[in-house]
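Agenda item 2: adenosine-5'-monophosphate-propyl ester complex prediction
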Amino acid sequence: MNLYHIQNLEHYFQVYRHSVDQPEQFWEQIAKKNFVWQKPWNTVLNWNSDTAEVRWFEGAQLNITENCIDRHLETRGDKTAILFEPNNPKDPAEHITYKELHTRVCKFANVLKDKGIKKGDRICIYLPMIPELAIAVLACARIGAIHSVVFAGFSATALSTRINDAKCSMVITSDGSFRGSKTIDLKGIVDEALEETPTIENVLVVKRIHSDIMIKEGRDHWVQPLVDAASAHCPIELMDAEDPLFILYTSGSTGKPKGMVHTTAGYMVYSAYTFKNVFQYEEEDIYWCTADIGWITGHSYIVYGPLANGATTVMYEGVPSYPDWGRFWEIVQKHKITQFYTAPTAIRALAKENLEFVEIYNLTSLKVLGTVGEPINEEAWHWYNDNIGKKRSPIVDTWWQTETGGIMISPIPFATPTIPTFATLPLPGIQPALMDEHGKEIEGNQVDGRLCVKFPWPSMARTIWGNHQRYIDTYFSAFAKKYFTGDGAFRDATGYYRITGRVDDVIIVSGHNLGTAPIEDAINEHPAVAESAIVGFPHDIKGNALYGYVILKETGETRNHDNLRKEINQVITEKIGPIAKLDKIQFTIGLPKTRSGKIMRRILRKIAHGESDQLGDISTLLNPEVVEAVIQEAL
Ligand code: PRX
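Presented output:
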């Protein structure tokens, strides 16, 4: 039986059964056949559910860049590895072949070495979607440095928090970025962040927008002259299977962001395996994922998964609306894209525009469409299916997380029949469980519960950087011996899963995970604010938008409230980034609380949703009298 490439539904069920009955044998066969190892493993899986320690392919040695680049040189050396589509449609696309990618990664890796970077050092990458971003990521991996990519829309404060948490010694950035008709001063943001980062020794700067920037003598270096002078020969660093490959931050429901640690072998095997199957990738395909490499989707399904399969992966620098709302479809036509993977929020934004933006382009190259990051609503699903896929291309609604490293629940195109809003079935090796509030697994179908995974899979995050206890508390405490996802899910009569949304204090806005606590912390820093609470409410395009309840220090606050709203959003932009701005801010005299002093978000959520007639029993609150006032003030 071919385990690596699933071809139909029956085949899927066979493979799935095998992966559950004999998980270790299953992953061993896949790992052995489809990857290059410098040394084989001693044990496939080592798992301690009490300490939440998991090790896959222990004893093995490898380098992921040998698997993503070197091994393709002989057979695919002249094939395009990365197809770069710039922000400005008038600028030419860049086709980087596997051979060129090899040279550029080796040179970049030598630059890192020249600057003293060694295996295990952490490097922060803060770059726009230009080829150097993928090259820098791979250069780190080649020499065993741990990359920590920070999405280039994050603010200086968010950047310095992440740099300090991982104690990075270097930042790789650019003089700026193009975003539609705007340019963004990335280097300026880095300079501000670095005022508070004692561990940074060097900054490598890629020239992209040719702006006049500050170069701090001794610390900042233009990267191109260094790359030009570097050798194109860079041997791979031998990595143990469980050596960290990267750290990627995700927001939690409390406190500072969590640096999820992904390790080398398991991550490689799983991201490559799922890429092959979920996109039914074939040799001549041109695959495009519109995510940013600053998120896990970009790590696994722009860089590592596609390149490990020898694919052509598209990187797009710009936004969907520039120069107009037809840009995505123009790119699909121009490069004859075969697989297109995007977020529901993008689909909703595109669906709002005139259909002519779609109709003037030839989209017949498309074979598979994908979505990720949040539940897709039926309307958006149908728009995507009718107008982009022309009812011919299956839509894979892929459910997964930064923590899971790869896609967990998804249809397999041309095998799994799809139903709008259902992520459908678990991929091979994934054993989901729905749990009730008493910690018992809910058996059977037509049931709702909290979504857990009851057996380890190769690409699960191994820990939170510097804080294993937080990892245990967040993911392995709610339900004994199971990984808790933080999501709720429904399992229908046929065993299909539909993700119903977060059950914790994380809100998904435009596909971005936002914890309520860090935003509340930011708001509370405004001098006029005493206390605040954030909830989500439905939004046409973003899926959810943020609604803030804010108590001011002085109830007789005389300043213009609209100005105050602007100031509060300004603080959020500075502390976190514009993605966390609030759509609505209600100044309130109080917040409903439990007797133990916890804010009752359930009630605030109902009010924000305009459902204040469905609050249920509020008599157990510490301050039930506040609720009526909050309802009266609601926006
Ligand atoms: O709530 C789920 C939602 O996004 C969360 C993970 O966010 P993040 O770590 O940023 O990773 C996003 C990209 C993998 C999940 O806990 N989510 C992700 N995909 C889906 C989804 N919700 C519903 N359907 C999906 N397909």
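Discussion summary: The chain has two domains: 9-319+398-489, 510-634.
Owner for follow-up: CH.
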